[in-house]
TrEMBL record:
Taxonomic path: Bacteria, Bacillati, Actinomycetota, Actinomycetes, Micrococcales
Database matches in Pfam families: Cu-oxidase, Cu-oxidase_2, Cu-oxidase_3
Chain ranges of the Plastocyanin-like domain: 57-170, 213-290, 361-473
Keyword Nucleotide-binding: no
Annotated source species: Microbacterium murale
Name assigned to this protein: Suppressor of ftsI
Amino acid sequence: AAALAAVAASAVLLTACDSFSTTAVAEHDFVNELAIPPLADSTVEDGVRTFQLTAGQGTTSFLGIGDAETWGFNGAFLGPTLRAERGERVAFEIDNQLPEATSVHWHGMHLPAAMDGGPHQMIEQGETWRSTWTIDQPASTLWYHPHPHGETEKHVYLGLAGMFILDDDASLAADLPSEYGVDDLPLIVQDKEFDNSGRLALNDDGSEPGTLGDTVMVNGTVGAYQEVTTEQVRLRLLNGSTARTYTFEMPDRPMTLISTDGGFLDAPVEMDQVRLAPGERAEVVVSFDAGETVRLHSSKTDLGGIVVPATSGGNDEFDVLEFRAAATLTPSSEPSWPQAKDAVADELHEDEASVTRDFVLNTREINGEQMDMNRIDEVVHVGATEVWEVRSTQPIPHSFHIHDVQFRVLSIDGREPPPELAGPKDTIYLNPNLTYRLLVRFEDYADPTMPYMYHCHMLLHEDEGMMGQFVVIESGDEDRVGVPEHSGH
Ligand code: C2O
Ligand code: CU
C-alpha cells in the first residue's frame, strides 16, 4: 500500500515523498519532448565502416531538481544509435574515459567471440578497444551495453546502453515506416530510482529481481511525449532496464508486431500486449487518428502465475510515453511485410539437431554452478545445430540470453510457442518450471580459447553468477579448449 502511495502526481511531488524504497512507478505529467538518440557518425575507408565511441561520465538532470551523475557513450547518458547494413564490414573504436574498466557487448550480434565485448574483452581505464566484424544476419533491432563481470548492472544502470539497427535488402525494400525519429522511433525503456537531489540510486537491499526504479524513462526522458505526424508509426521497443519486465499496450488498438529480437516474424501478428523482459526487443507498428493524444502503457505483467513479491517488477501499471497526433496526419501506405523467405536467416530444422543440453536456473546458478571466468561450461562444435533445454526452477523472474546466436523456440513445456515467440530470439523470459526448448545453430567463428556467454539478463542475477561460458570449436580442437590468458578481471 505504501508502494502505491508513491504513485504521486508528478516528478516534483514525488521528490517530496520519502518512500523511495517503494517500487510502484510514479506517474508524471507528459510534458518533456522525447529525446531521440542521434544516429552515430561513421567513416568508410577501404570497405570498413568505422564508428568512434567514447564511454565517459557526465551529468543529467532527469527530474529538473538536480544533476545525476550518469555515464554515456559520446554524451552524458545512453549512446548514439548505431546503424549498419547486412554485408558491411564494421569497426568500433571504443575509448574508455570512465573511472574504471568496462567492456562493450553487441547484444544479438553474430560475430567472433573475441569481438563480442564480453567480460574477457575488458577495456581498461584510458584504453581504446577495437572491435571489427562483417554484419551477417537479418535486419533487426539490436543493442549494445557493457558486460564487465560483476559490474554490468551498475554500468548499464548509470546509462551505458544504445540501440544498434541492422538493415538488409528485405527491410529496405519493405514498405514500413522508416524515417528515423519521425515515424520509426527508437524507444529505450528503463526504470530508475532517485534520491531527493535527483541523483540516481541503486538499491542494494537484495530484493528480487534487482533494483526496480519508481521512475520510468524513455531514451532518458521522464514523462516524455512524441509528436506524431503520420498515420502509422513503427516503435522499436528495447527493454533496457536492469530488472523490470514490461507489458506494453496501446489504448483501443492493437500493436502489429513485425519483428522480435533477431528480425522479422514470418508474418506480422496483431497483439493487444507485448511483454518484454530485460534485454528483449520488439518492433511494432501502431496506427493513430488525427488529433488524438494517447499513451503507451505498461500493464500488469503475467509472469507465469507466480506471486510476484511486492518489491518485484511487473505488477505495476503505468504510462510510459505520450503520443500527440497532429490535426492532419500524412497517410501511410499499407505496410508491406518483408518476405519471410528473405527475412528469415537460415531456416533451422530440428531434425538437424545433434546435441541436447540442459540448463537449469536457480539461485544465481546455472546447472548448480556460479559463473567462473576460468571455467568453460559448454563446448560446441562449429556448424552444429543443438537443442538447448532451459528451465527456471525458482519462483522469481529470469530472462535467458545466449550470445552470438538467434534461436527458435521449439516448444514451451511441450506446447507450440505463441506467435510472438516464434520468430528469431536471443533473449527469452522464463516462466518458472516450464521447459523452453530452443533450437540454436552455431554457424561459424570457431575459437577454442575465447568463450561466449549465456546468462540471465536480469543484471543483478548475471552479476551474482547466473552466467556460463561456451566455446565454439572445430573438431580436433578439444584439447585446446580454455579461457584466454590475462582475463583475470
Ligand atoms: Cu545483453 Cu550478455 O548481454
Ligand atoms: Cu535471473
